[in-house]
Amino acid sequence: xxxxxxxxxxxxxxxxxxxxxxxxxxxxxxxxxxxxxxxxxxxxxxxxxxxxxxxxxxxxxxxxxxxxxxxxxxxxxxxxxxxxxxxxxxxxxxxxxxxxxxxxxxxxxxxxxxxxxxxxxxxxxxxxxxxxxxxxxxxxxxxxxxxxxxxxxxxxxxxxxxxxxxxxxxxxxxxxxxxxxxxxxxxxxxxxxxxxxxxxxxxxxxxxxxxxxxxxxxxxx
Amino acid sequence: xxxxxxxxxxxxxxxxxxxxxxxxxxxxxxxxxxxxxxxxxxxxxxxxxxxxxxxxxxxxxxxxxxxxxxxxxxxxxxxxxxxxxxxxxxxxxxxxxxxxxxxxxxxxxxxxxxxxxxxxxxxxxxxxxxxxxxxxxxxxxxxxxxxxxxxxxxxxxxxxxxxxxxxxxxxxxxxxxxxxxxxxxxxxxxxxxxxxxxxxxxxxxxxxxxxxxxxxxxxxx
Lengths: 221, 221
Prior knowledge:
The structure is a homodimer. Chain A is built from six helices and twelve strands. Chain A is an alpha+beta fold. Chain A has one domain (19-215): Electron Transport, Fmn-binding Protein, Chain A (Pnp Oxidase, Chain A), CATH 2.30.110.10. In chain A, strands 1, 2, 3, 6, 7, 10 and 11 form a seven-stranded antiparallel β-sheet that branches. In chain A, strands 4-5-9-8 form a four-stranded antiparallel β-sheet. Chain A is globular and about 65 Å long. At the A-B interface, strand 2, strand 3, strand 6, strand 7 and helix 3 of A face strand 2, strand 3, strand 6, strand 7 and helix 3 of B.
């Protein structure tokens, strides 16, 4: 069973390949989910697997997805089909002496479950706040809040963080013993998502300046 | 039919939601595939959808995937099951006056098809070179090449770039007409993947220095 510290290990969520990289720890899983901006959501429609990139938000032990009420994707998900929810943070390239041992450092989360339609207006607002916080912390205080017409036009689904796992690779390459003597550079190249220069909407009234959550924006630690 | 300029439009690859953002152009699709480092690969195993992050490489009109010969993932894919191959580049946050119109700028590719086991040693080497080029251009010239034992331990699959589409959002937010008068900052925050400082493998012989494809590493344009 899933509990307050660890997610459920089941047949489909058990890590078979390199299990030492795997974890069911909620804290690690929440950290990865909170740092990423996009999930890749997998589901089956007419025997065909689909993988669609989606924004999302987390509130406690559940994730929220949203989209237009007319979207085929949201219509399929809310039917209670099996979903695989995957998030990947790429932390760097692992540069080995042999091509065979090149790799990547990453943190990923794979969750299994079914999405459920959120019907209450209160929970919908909670979800919309979670999307906003995921994308830009404190933007909720600065922007115009959703009105009831916008709430109606938005389908919100909740997805439980209950079954699944994280997988993490860190550190330097592991080359074959005899390759360490080769005169080839090896190590890691860290990669991060960095913000560029803010671009003002050309239709913006001149005197408005962006607040510090935008000018000092950053992901990760 | 798929041709030299465009991918096939089929029932499963037709873009229904916001079709003006969609494209079947090979050139655009190749550019997106070449800039990304990780794909999210979806398939069905025992009626359950799985979405797994994977490195890949492109060579002409096909993609290559690889992994250990003992991996369940590779074993499932090589059985010729339907696969959905998705790649997403996050280009920035779209910051609107209303929370409802917040969005992201992105370029994504969704491909459909079946993977095929690559058996010839020559094509396997082509594929390994494509993985290397995808991750670090010209690393093939610097590192120790795969030997026949390593080739045997690696399962390589090819996947055709034939059916699917790209989807792209760019530019500033589109707010509701009456919201443009609000004193709320709006615009875009570009995001990019930037390399950090190279970390030497502690086991490296002292006099070796990294070559320019590592010291000047960058993704994208």
